Amino acid sequence: MIPQRSNMTWNLLLLTWLFALVSTLSALFIGEVMGQAPCVLCWFQRAFMFPLAVILAIACYRSDFTVWRYALPLTVIGAALAFVHTLLYAG
Fold first, then answer.
1. Which of 24, 26, 42, 45 is the S-S candidate for 53 at Cβ 3.0 to 4.6 Å?
2. Are 17 and 51 spatial neighbours (Cβ–Cβ below 8 Å)?
3. Residue 80 CA, distance from chain mean position
């Protein structure tokens, strides 16, 4: 039987992958279907967000719970860019 902690870890990994996947698909929908061209900072944010969907999908498939070691830097840099972008947009 799988311990409760491992089950929670698996659910968290799956949730992070779903969040990255929805973010990626949303950005692609806005750009490709709605026709809104992203700005330069949006491109940089996407450069750090799009690989997360792939990395986390592979981690889910392989049950690699140490994925945080290589996904966290992408997340932190992308979040920092989003924060700066939000500050610039807000003025």
1. 24
2. no
3. 13
**Is this model's pTM higher than 0.90 or not?**
no
Residue 7 has pLDDT above 90, yes or no: no
Closest by CA position to 81, among listed 49, 50, 41:
41
How many CB atoms within 10 Å of residue 37?
A: 8
How confident is the model over 31-76, as pLDDT tens digits? 899 999 888 888 999 999 999 999 999 999 998 889 999 999 999 9
Determine the Cα–Cα distance for residues 45 and 26; give it in Å rounded to an integer: 13
For the chain, the distance separating the N- and C-terminal CA atoms, rounded to the nearest angstrom, is 54
Separation CA 65–CA 10 (nearest Å): 8
> CA-CA distances (angstroms) from residue 67 to 61, 74, 79?
12, 11, 18
